[in-house]
Design brief:
By secondary structure, the chain is of the alpha/beta class. Among the domains are: about 60 residues, no CATH class; about 220 residues, 3-Layer(aba) Sandwich (Rossmann fold). It contains 17 helices and 15 strands. The strands form 4 sheets. Strands 4-5-13-10-11-12 form a 6-stranded mixed β-sheet, sandwiched between helices. It has a 4-stranded parallel β-sheet with strand order 8-7-6-9, sandwiched between helices. A 3-stranded antiparallel β-sheet has the order 2-1-3. Helix 5 runs parallel beside helix 6. Bound molecules: ligand F0G. The site of ligand F0G has 22 residues, from helix 5, helix 10 and helix 15.
């Protein structure tokens, strides 16, 4: 991307008053640092994940907020991206020439009183990441990850995915002129997502195993082949996703909500939100942190289990360590992950924000999804775990009815139409201990088949004009 002078990326170490940037091991005791052009996703000293760490220049928070806002009026591609518009908080690129953007971000914050009433709070504010170019929050991180790949001179990029990362990677790689190789668990991702990867031209490898097994198989191999790995363990992916809460704060007039609620799978997104929020506080853009709530599906709940164990034993969860769920099961296939890579990073953010982790059942996810749909908003199954989680946390008094609650809808309703159709037609079922269990169609909306008969159709029309409850 060619940029105007005004729009050039800040943060090149050569610039006076710019941020300095390095990679650093997440483990404080280790603390190993690496140059920002290092290709590793893991600390070579201890094997933990890496963070992008900045030393910020002195900034004027009010002026920066004004700059960010004014870029919405610009014609520059970088300014119009809802990620690069906030480039002063992600200053890791040496030049904006390598930026690959599809105008991601700039997603709405939609208030729903109906969803609030369902969950037992006044209202829920949905940050709808499904409005992104490929229909999920992955685009926010993929623009930064692929741009860093281009900056490093990489020609081939890869990921293991439950469907959204792969769709996003395929699109950004194609747009940036790179080759994408994606690995997905065969038969275990939603049709919309698979079709996207094929359409965007990615080499699509369906492995006959689940996400965790595939990840273990591929992780080292990809790096050894000199291919740039763009899973959320890649610290530059996290940088882009970090701008989602920045945009939320801007939309809320820089007044932090009480809660930000996210679905949890590989746990990269929660770690990105936490990092973004902490950095905004460091920079004086906000004065306090909202509490983070991560919601996991009951059949894929390793973080929830770890935190419960830690509470029961009175021990630090870091000390206990995460015990993977061997055979994760959920119809919310996006979060069907038993051994999340970023669990330590997410735990760090839950601790920093006084956060919580909740689990929800298949029925709770399905019903919450239908309510989000009935609100005119709609989302894919994993995203609906947020509303189901808010309902549970409100019932337990953890979230209070008057609390300001932001829920992140991570994916578009069109991602998984098979799920939606099955729910409304009363055929949704999930596997549990070798059995198929039904999900009740509590808020189902069955389609009506009708003969081409005028009187019959008229009767239905009148029925349709009765006010809906
Ligand atoms: N919601 C959706 C729609 C997702 O696609 C994912 C993750 C999550 C929530 C959970 O986010 O992993 O950062 O905790 N999808 C990944 C993928 C794993 O491959 O598309 P997380």
């Amino acid at each position: 991307m060619k940029a105007t002078k005004e729009a050039s990326v800040m943060g090149t170490p050569a610039e006076p008053g710019a941020a300095t940037v390095r990679l650093q091991c997440l483990d404080k005791k280790c603390g190993a640092t690496y140059p920002v052009h290092d290709l590793a996703n893991e600390c070579t000293a201890c094997g933990n994940l890496l963070d992008v760490r900045y030393e910020w220049p002195k900034i004027d928070p009010a002026a920066l907020k004004q700059t960010w806002l004014s870029r919405k009026m610009s014609r520059d591609q970088g300014d119009l991206s809802g990620v690069w518009r906030f480039r002063e908080i992600i200053p890791f690129l040496r030049s904006d020439e390598s930026i690959v953007t599809l105008r991601e971000g700039n997603t709405p914050l939609l208030e729903s009183r109906k969803a609030g009433a369902y969950a037992g709070v006044d209202a829920v504010l949905f940050k709808h990441q499904g409005f992104n170019p490929t229909g999920s929050f992955k685009d926010n991180g993929m623009t930064t990850g692929v741009s860093q790949g281009v900056a490093l001179g990489k020609k081939v990029v890869a990921c293991v995915s439950t469907g959204n990362t792969s769709a996003s990677l395929a699109a950004y790689a194609a747009y940036g002129g790179l080759r994408a190789v994606i690995f997905i668990p065969s038969g275990q991702i939603a049709g919309g997502k698979l079709s996207q990867s094929l359409e965007y031209g990615a080499l699509t490898i369906q492995v006959e195993a689940n996400f965790d097994v595939t990840w273990k198989l591929i992780f080292k191999m990809v790096e050894e082949a000199g291919v740039y790995l763009l899973n959320s363990v890649n610290p530059f992916r996290v940088e882009g996703q970090k701008t989602i809460p920045v945009e939320v704060m801007e939309q809320l007039g820089w007044e932090p909500p009480d809660w930000i609620v996210l679905p949890g799978g590989n746990l990269g997104n929660c770690s990105a939100f936490g990092k973004g929020l902490r950095e905004m506080r460091e920079l004086g853009l906000i004065n306090r942190l909202p509490r983070l709530a991560v919601i996991q599906a009951e059949g894929a709940n390793p973080l929830y289990q770890l935190i419960q164990q830690s509470i029961a034993q009175g021990k630090s969860p870091f000390e206990i360590g995460l015990k993977p769920v061997e055979n994760p099961q959920t119809l919310a296939t996006a979060v069907k992950i038993g051994n999340p890579a970023s669990w330590k990073k997410t735990l760090r953010e839950l601790e920093a924000s006084n956060g919580v982790c909740e689990q929800v059942t298949e029925q709770e996810i399905a019903d919450a999804k239908a309510i989000i749909g009935q609100s005119g908003i709609g989302c894919e199954p994993a995203s609906a775990a947020t509303l189901a989680g808010i309902k549970k946390l409100a019932a337990r008094g953890v979230i209070r009815s008057q609390d300001r609650v932001v829920a992140v809808l991570t994916g578009n309703v069109l991602k998984d139409p098979a799920y939606t159709l099955a729910y409304h037609q009363g055929t949704l079922a999930y596997a549990s201990e070798g059995r198929q269990l039904p999900v009740a169609s509590n808020f189902g909306n069955r389609p009506i088949v009708v003969r081409p008969d005028a009187a019959e159709i008229k009767r239905l029309l009148t029925q349709g004009s009765e006010p809906r409850l």
